[in-house]
């Protein structure tokens, strides 16, 4: 099958299973769970993947609410992985749309698995908890979950459709300033004012 034919087949498969994917998205939206508490989301996603012939391992990378679902086409080829995020924000619920991300990436994995034999590839769906706080993908990577993956794909909600996103990475850094107490009138030269160091850093 040529690439155009493959695209049409994938579109038809996605439409055929759309209601299943939307139901999972709705369920996760209605049951928001914070980082490392995503039991309902994990169960909904894993159950759907199992129904579609995936071999599922819950608790991947020693993280209780992570998972790895694999579909082996029996053909040698690359392994494509789709990343699900499904934790919610405190008090806001799924304001970042992780219910959609989880269902969409799960759906992509399922749809590709239906065409995997023709495409000559294998498929993984990786459940990544705690994206909003701890970034558990880092732990999963360190623990070998991505070792046999050739290509990783993920999608995120935005106001426009964009295939090549540009984002600014952010690392949190913590600075500790320690002063030294001294009598301000008698021994000011023996004191260290930590606030002055903080102001100098901002300057």
List keywords for this structure.
203 residues; alpha/beta; five-stranded mixed beta sheet; 7 helices; 13% strand
SSE topology string: HHHEEEHHEHEH
Q: Strands across the major sheet, in which order?
A: 1-2-4-3-5
Residue share in β-strands: 5-15%
Tell me the total number of β-strands. Answer: 5
Distance between the termini: 63 Å
Give the biggest beta sheet: 5 strands, mixed
Structural class based on helices, strands and sheet pairing: alpha/beta
* Radius of gyration of CA atoms, rounded to a whole number: 23 Å
Rounded mean pLDDT is 93
* Helical content class: 25-40%
Specify the overall morphology: elongated
Low-pLDDT stretches are none
Number of helices: 7
Structure overview:
A hairpin with an 8-residue loop joins strand 1 and strand 2. The radius of gyration is 23 Å and the shape is elongated. The chain is built from seven helices and five strands. The termini are far apart. Helix content is 37%, strand content 13%. The protein has a five-stranded mixed beta sheet, with helices on one face.
Describe the secondary-structure layout.
Elements lengths: L2 H14 L1 H13 L8 H13 L3 E4 L8 E5 L7 E7 L12 H17 L1 H4 L2 E7 L8 H6 L8 E3 L40 H9 L1
Parallel strand pairs: 3-4, 3-5
Antiparallel strand pairs: 1-2, 2-4
What's the short story on this structure?
The chain has about 200 residues and is α/β, with parallel strands linked by helices.
